[in-house]
Design a protein that fits this description.
mainly alpha, single chain, 7 helices
Length: about 160
């Protein structure tokens, strides 16, 4: 069972990683003075990966998962998992492309049409990711997910038939 104090800590970590991600998305273009600074800022991809790992660990910790109703969890969180994979892929692609173009001359204008399109898609996916991730983090704080309840017994009985 998830205790209030441990959930508060996990939520704080999740929101801190989301805040870092938002900071990098907002200000990475202003802080491009040196390629090494960009490289450090683009550790954002690791933060996204940690966010996904934390959500998966919280899903595995639920009573719903432990009784074998993985399909219920996947149905509920399919959008987040899909958008997270898309956002991580777009972020890695954008950061690799930017670092390749900017490593030699970091202050030169290097925006190609393809890079601009990837930038727009990555930022759009970021908005969806922030919304779905925050909603999921709050939903995983529901104590009904961590204890036996009548709705869970009904779902288990339906799954066994």
């Amino acid at each position: 069972m998830l205790q209030t104090s441990s959930y508060s800590l996990v939520l704080l970590i999740q929101l801190s990683l989301l805040a870092y991600d938002l900071f990098v998305n907002s200000f990475s273009e202003l802080l491009r003075g040196a390629p090494v600074v960009q490289l450090v800022l683009f550790m954002q991809d690791v933060a996204i990966l940690f966010d996904v790992i934390i959500v998966l660990l919280m899903l595995f910790n639920t009573h719903v998962f432990q009784v074998g109703l993985l399909s219920l969890l996947l149905a509920r969180f399919r959008a987040l998992l899909g958008v997270s994979a898309l956002y991580l892929t777009l972020s890695i692609g954008l950061h690799c492309w930017l670092m390749t173009l900017r490593w030699i001359e970091s202050n030169r204008f290097v925006w190609t049409n393809g890079l601009q399109a990837l930038f727009v898609f990555q930022r759009t996916a970021a908005v969806l990711y922030y919304y779905l991730y925050k909603r999921t983090a709050e939903f995983l704080g529901d104590p009904r997910l961590y204890e036996d309840s009548p709705w869970l017994r009904d779902a288990f009985a339906k799954a066994r038939q």
